[in-house]
Structures are given as C-alpha cells and as structure tokens.
Design goal:
single chain, 93 residues, mainly alpha
Length: 93
C-alpha cells in the first residue's frame, strides 16, 4: 500500500492524512467525506511548527483534488483560498 501511495505522489513521502484517504479508498466505500484538510496552508490547533518537513504538500493537494474531480472523495471545509504554506518542504540532499 505504501509503495503504491508513494508512487501516486511522485515518490514523495505521504502524510498520515494521505494514508488515511488512501485506506478509505481501498475500503470501496460508496462515499468518502474528508474534513480538516487544507494541505498545511494554515496551522492546526495543536501545532505551530514551521521547520521544513519531508512532504510535498502541493503534490498531495493535486492528488486529492484529482480524487475530488473523479468523485472519489469530497473535501469539506477547504475554501480554496490561496495561502502561503506554513510548513515548508524540506529540500532533498
């Protein structure tokens, strides 16, 4: 599962949220509603971290939006405003 998900994200390290969406897709649920995802454009209530992380949030958001376009999931609460990411991607070495 991890290998297939990582490949879907252009070989980028998936977040735990992407893992949950992917697991829900594997369940073959008739309807998948996703809440609380803005792909790190705002801080969560519990975390104020600004250090870079090894995730590519832009790619993950594109992947999720493709799922929305294909009617595989519905994302609620994301008003699609353009914000600067609060957690930058760590540069590969």
């Amino acid at each position: 599962m991890y290998t297939r998900l990582k490949k879907s994200l252009g070989e980028n390290l998936p977040t735990s949220g992407a893992h949950l969406i992917y697991l829900a897709l594997l369940s073959r649920a008739k309807k998948i509603d996703v809440y609380g995802f803005d792909f790190y454009k705002t801080f969560s209530f519990y975390e104020q971290r600004t250090d870079p992380v090894p995730h590519d949030f832009d790619t993950e958001e594109e992947w999720a939006q493709e799922l929305v376009r294909n009617k595989k999931i519905t994302i609620h609460g994301n008003d699609n405003k353009t914000y600067k990411r609060v957690i930058p991607k760590r540069n590969s070495k």
